[in-house]
Design a protein that fits this description.
Elements (H helix, E strand, L loop, with lengths): L4 E3 L2 E5 L8 E6 L5 E2 L5 E2 L6 E6 L10 E7 L8 E4 L2 H9 L5 E4 L7 E3 L2 E4 L3 E2 L1
Parallel strand pairs: 3-8, 8-9
Antiparallel strand pairs: 1-2, 2-3, 4-5, 6-7, 9-12, 10-11
């Protein structure tokens, strides 16, 4: 797992590129504090959302989802990654955003207690 350092109230990690010593800032835009398996946590700093619309269900009970406008996702910032829900991540990627990640809740190393997620090993892009 990559190390996170708290700096000025924000968690940052040093770039894996040793020639480039910039730090990446993570901003959590989910309604929950995100805790990593290594103990690092990212308190919520907002709540990005997406308005979805759905087609009618077909004869097999299947419909399609269309991601609409994303609300409360700031414009890209240098050296900043926004932590969002999986639904917001999907919509943001459709719109070409590369600065968003979601908690890796489906990863085999995700920790659960009584069926509830207590920490994740990292993020998915």
């Amino acid at each position: 797992m990559f190390p996170f350092q708290k700096e000025h109230g924000k968690y940052k990690r040093q770039s894996k590129n040793h020639k480039n010593k910039r730090k990446m800032k993570f901003i959590n835009l989910t309604p929950h504090t995100i805790t990593l398996n290594d103990g690092s946590s990212f308190p919520t700093e907002g709540n990005a959302r997406v308005a979805d619309t759905y087609t009618r269900f077909n004869a097999y009970g299947i419909c399609r989802v269309k991601h609409g406008e994303i609300k409360d996702l700031p414009e890209p910032e240098a050296n900043t990654t926004f932590i969002v829900s999986a639904m917001v991540l999907a919509a943001a990627k459709e719109k070409g955003r590369e600065d968003v990640v979601a908690p890796a809740t489906g990863h085999p190393l995700c920790k659960r207690e009584n069926g509830f997620i207590i920490s994740v090993p990292g993020f998915v892009h």
